[in-house]
Automatic annotation (TrEMBL), chain A:
Keywords: Cell membrane, Membrane, Transmembrane, Transmembrane helix, Transport. This is Sugar ABC transporter permease. The chain crosses the membrane at residues 7-29, 69-93, 105-128, 156-180, 215-235, 261-283. It is a multi-pass membrane protein. Its main location: membrane.
UniProtKB/TrEMBL annotation, chain B:
It is found in: Cell membrane. This is Carbohydrate ABC transporter permease. The keyword GTP-binding does not apply. It comes from the Bacteria. The chain crosses the membrane at residues 26-51, 87-109, 121-143, 155-179, 200-224, 262-278. InterPro entries: MetI-like, MetI-like_sf. Residues 87-278 form the ABC transmembrane type-1 domain. It comes from Kribbella sancticallisti. It is a multi-pass membrane protein. Belongs to the binding-protein-dependent transport system permease family. Keywords: Cell membrane, Membrane, Transmembrane, Transmembrane helix, Transport.
Length: 292, 292
């Protein structure tokens, strides 16, 4: 231990080699490809920034990022808000008045959709929402008629969002409930004795106490929302008419269906840039909030 | 754990006279249970239809209770995709990634957290950055590399890629855990004449074993549920994983409703069983991840 720190470099060697081969080199190669025109066969042809200028004029590219905003609403905003209310209710009301077992059981139920492979969830919902699926059977039974939920450009995106909310909801619930274990019960006691109602306690104690976790949940879910691929692939393949396409699906489609490798590489680079900028922005805001 | 017991005893002592809203709490319970039921409904519909015969399904629709419990759909799906092979592929890939990923994270984190090598903040930052890169920005070069090395459509390609990707997160997490490793233990080991290698395996690993097992479980389940890179890399029956099998069958539009539901059921069973076995470790682990 006392022989200095130089010997520790050896422990980084396998990691350095692995990261160079699997992350750094491919990322550099992707950057290079984004400056070329290539179908995947033969040699890439250098075209400079053409792919990027083409991106800025491509309506589908802008649609994909607009849809990303919808993914953020479905995977971050709504689950975090519902998760806050649910976890506070499970902890403060259910857990204390109906027992920890009831609260844990309900928590596990909300977490269940998080456990399955997301593409399996997508396929299950794809069937539920099919014209001859279960949702329309319910619609017929209560006299609402039927609808091609995923085939109609107007309803496809809201349905995708609904599925993602269903998938995401358990994650904030579990994290927030764990965070609440940390809160001093005396705070709630004192507030209750002072006559503070449930909402007042939620606002004055719960929210400030679990702020660090709220940041972590918001950041990790935002990154997940920017990267979302599996559910789109399983539910709509970006359709109908690109109504539900997202950047990752757009890139995949360019790479492997349209064989526009350079263009796909440009989309993927743009996506990574957005993720890095958003993450750094998040960490900056978090730092400032924690200071004040 | 201590805070938990504390809360419970405190509440039960004061419980009888403290809560005036006797009916309000039942309303809250009913609302939360209703939300939980909504989360469960898709699962129930799936299970119901997984056990129907195709004739029963086409006669009575998706919402009717099965006339008799048929295993045909499940058998059909199992035989059609050779499910035992998919299960084996998923176990080999996820198991290898989990073990290799933890070892790689540990070596990196040992140098960064305990060794405190120069520039460790920058190196940790690079690992964090590697977490943010979207897989789309790596996939095409990785695909070309796999083809030129003869690793395309092999389990090994996916094992190597995910070992590195998962250990980016693992390194980040473990480095901060090992950053607070007790100095006294390291000095004691040094006094006993233990070198770095011995110290790592005899002192550090036994102390952080709980965190390592959480990482192991996470890496396993994350890799099991991965979709995008396996979709690109694994193209035939002999290499595909459990989620891919369902997806590619759906892609071929070969499945009727009962087989779809049976397939979804079989595909999610392993993860649900895994979740039930490791539920406690997982929910604890989600917290470990959240507190940074």
């Amino acid at each position: 231990m006392t022989r200095g720190k130089a010997g520790f470099w050896w422990y980084l060697l396998p990691g350095a080699v692995a990261f160079t081969a699997i992350v750094a080199v491919p990322f550099g190669a992707n950057l290079y490809l984004s400056l070329t025109k290539w179908s995947g066969i033969g040699d890439p042809r250098w075209i400079g920034l053409d792919n990027y200028t083409r991106l800025l004029r491509d309506d589908v590219f802008w649609t994909s990022f607009r849809n990303t905003a919808a993914m953020v609403i479905a995977m971050v905003v709504i689950p975090t808000l519902i998760g806050l209310v649910l976890s506070a209710t499970l902890f403060d009301v259910i857990g204390r008045r109906f027992g920890q077992k009831t609260a844990s059981f309900l928590r596990a139920t909300f977490y269940l959709p998080q456990v399955l492979p997301v593409v399996v969830a997508g396929i299950l919902w794809g069937w539920l929402l099919r014209p001859d699926g279960a949702v329309n059977a319910v619609g017929r039974a209560i006299g609402l008629g039927e609808h091609d939920w995923l085939g109609d450009p107007k309803t496809a995106l809201p349905m995708v969002m609904l599925v993602l909310i269903w998938v995401q909801i358990g994650y904030p619930v579990v994290i927030f409930m764990a965070a609440l274990q940390r809160v001093d019960p005396d705070l709630y006691e004192a507030a209750e004795i002072d006559g503070a109602g449930w909402f007042r306690r939620f606002q004055a104690i719960t929210l400030p106490q679990i702020r660090p976790e709220t940041f972590v949940v918001a950041l990790t879910c935002t990154i997940a929302a920017l990267k979302v691929f599996g559910p789109i692939w399983a539910l709509t393949r970006g359709g109908p008419n690109n109504a539900t396409t997202v950047p990752s699906y757009f890139a995949y489609n360019a790479f492997f269906n349209k064989l526009q490798v350079g263009y796909g590489a440009a989309v993927a680079t743009a996506l990574t840039l957005v993720i890095v900028v958003v993450s750094i922005g998040f960490l900056k805001v978090q730092g400032r909030v924690e200071e004040s | 754990m201590t805070t938990l017991t504390l809360t419970r005893s405190r509440v039960s002592r004061k419980d009888p006279d403290r809560y005036k809203q006797g009916t309000a709490r039942w309303v809250v319970l009913a609302l939360v249970v209703l939300t939980a039921a909504l989360v469960l409904v898709p699962f129930l519909i799936m299970v119901m239809n997984a056990f129907k015969s195709p004739a029963d399904y086409s006669g009575n629709g998706p919402l009717a209770w099965p006339e008799s419990f048929q295993l045909d759909g499940l058998k059909n799906y199992w035989q059609q995709v050779h499910f035992e092979g998919k299960l084996l592929n998923s176990i080999i890939i996820s198991g290898s990634v989990a073990m290799l990923g933890v070892v790689l994270s540990l070596l990196n984190a040992y140098a960064l957290g305990v060794g405190r090598v120069r520039g460790r903040i920058w190196i940790t930052g690079l690992f964090l950055l590697a977490n943010m890169i979207s897989q789309e920005a790596l996939v095409y070069p990785l695909y070309s590399m796999a083809k030129s090395f003869g690793l395309y459509n092999s389990r090994l390609s996916v094992i190597i890629i995910f070992t590195v990707i998962q250990s980016a997160f693992g390194t980040y997490l473990l480095a901060s855990v090992l950053g607070t490793f007790p100095k006294a233990l390291l000095e004691a080991a040094a006094l006993d004449g233990a070198g770095r290698w011995t110290t790592l395996w005899r002192v550090v690993v036994p102390t952080v074993r709980p965190t390592l097992s959480v990482l192991l479980i996470f890496f396993f389940i994350w890799t099991w549920n991965e979709f995008f890179i396996p979709l690109v890399m694994l193209i035939d029956n002999s290499t595909q994983t459990v989620p891919l099998a369902l997806a590619s069958l759906q892609g071929d539009r070969l499945m009727d409703a009962t087989t779809t539901n049976a397939g979804a059921l079989i595909s999610l069973l392993p993860t649900v069983v895994f979740f039930l076995i490791f539920q406690r470790t997982l929910t604890r682990g989600v917290t470990v991840g959240a507190v940074k």
